[in-house]
Amino acid sequence: MSLNNEKTACAKVGGFSVGEKIFAQVTFNLSVFIAAYSLWLVRPIFAVAYLVYALGSFTLLMRYTICARCPHLFQAGDCLFLPASLARKIVASDRSGPLGFAEKTLLIGAFAGTFLPPIFWLSSPLLFGGYVLMAGGCILGLLLHFCRHCHNMICPLNRRFSGR
Length: 164
Known about the structure:
mainly alpha
């Protein structure tokens, strides 16, 4: 798809609905909160380290990988997880081109490091169930809904243009 067609297609999308934003933000933020709380019960330093990792890795992810190439942010003026004005301040620039090895590693590391480790420290069935529901909802929401409608062609999770 050419850049002009991509800009036109993204303009037609008009960004994300309020419901989509609420779903994405609530499932992601609650999964991180439940994980941090669970880690806090085991060792507070684990919770602090987890929050630093989760916030740091997703800030780097936004700054240098997917969000830095997102037509939803730069052409439609919208962001799924943050107010667009804040996202534009975090993002390094309007980058282009495919992700390099380091950027793909950062992308995978941000998701894997945020969603996988807390599972081992979820100390009660209620925390485990809440975490699985929120983290699973976030991941499945991305893969089954958002990635199928996404206009970010370089994202390895994109399902709109890849036919997956």
